[in-house]
Amino acid sequence: LIFRSGSGGGSSAGGDYVIASLTIPAGAEIISAVAADGQLTVTYRAGAMTSVRIFDGKTGALVREIPVLSE
């Protein structure tokens, strides 16, 4: 997944996101990607498993991974 934010214009909000790339499991399908509060939250499906990964918007470092479990 390659994520780029902003057009380099006058908005300072784009300055919170400078990730050039980040990793998800090979073959995973991205369900959603949301940028907010300096973090990028990616929901993805890999086989039967769905997970949420939260990345730091500046460094791309994985902050947390949350498996989505069905009841």
Task: Please sum up the structure shown.
With 71 residues, this protein is mostly beta strands. The chain contains no helices and four strands.
Give an overview in words.
The chain has 71 residues and is mainly β. The chain contains no helices and four strands. The protein has strands at residues 29-36, 39-46, 49-56, 62-68. It has a four-stranded antiparallel beta sheet with strand order 1-2-3-4, with no helix packed on it. It is elongated.
Q: What average pLDDT do the residues reach?
A: 83
Class of secondary structure makeup:
mainly beta
Shape: elongated
Using DSSP, what is the number of strands? 4
**Tally of helical segments:** 0
How would a crystallographer describe the biggest sheet? 4 strands, antiparallel
In whole angstroms, the N-to-C terminal distance is: 29 Å
Strand content: 35-45%
Helix content: under 10%
H/E series = EEEE
Question: Uncertain segments of ≥5 residues (pLDDT<50)?
Answer: none
Biggest β-sheet: strands ordered side by side in the sheet: 1-2-3-4
Characteristic key phrases:
0% helix; mainly beta; single chain
Topology, pairings included?
Layout: E1 29-36, E2 39-46, E3 49-56, E4 62-68
